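Our preliminary data section would be incomplete without showing what the modeling component actually yields. Below, a chain of 202 amino acids is followed by its predicted structure, encoded as tokens that our downstream tools consume directly.
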Amino acid sequence: AQQPAFKSGVELVRIPVNVTQGDKPVEPGVLTAADFKVTEDGAEQSIALFERESLPLSICVVFDVSGSMRGSNADVALTAFRQVLTRLLPEDEVSVIAFAAAPAGGGAPGGVPDGEASNVLERLVGDSGGVAYRMSHGENAASLASAFVDDLRLQYTIGYTPAKALDGKYRRVKVEVKKRGFKIRHRGGYLALASESSPKPQ
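Predicted structure:
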């Protein structure tokens, strides 16, 4: 499958990392930089940046307003959207896009059969480090929408300067927590492009 082109235009590679303990985000102060290990294409890297702060969010919500979203499907989507709005702070921003597509079959929203919907979502998420949420009813939608916002807001940022010079190729990145009992999620790599300010080879 084609890899997503996360580009590193500077020498410091920043990796947003989500860490959970059980089903909840890890509280600040529980982990330090020494608890993480970062490798690039299998080679361990020295961590140069370690941050855990709540940054303003910029969220784009895309609504399917085609016929397949009538009735309970629309109710679930609106419940989730309202819950997202209740979790936002004054410094956050949100935009809304509506689209309509002709349904291609029965079952899941958007005309995708139930048996294929999860696979479609997983393919869209791909190697980005994101997660697909499957909402089936109003109560489920509200709790998952809250988890979605918390997932975006409560992230670590780990940065390192690659030991190998940037060469324009895709590089695999792996971040691990050395302690047990934690689950970690992050994007799978980046495209190693040198910044315009980097010295050009003579």
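Residues 1-9, 103-111, 197-202 have pLDDT under 50 and may be disordered. Residues 153 and 169 are 30 Å apart (CA to CA). Preliminary results of this kind motivate Aim 1 of the renewal.
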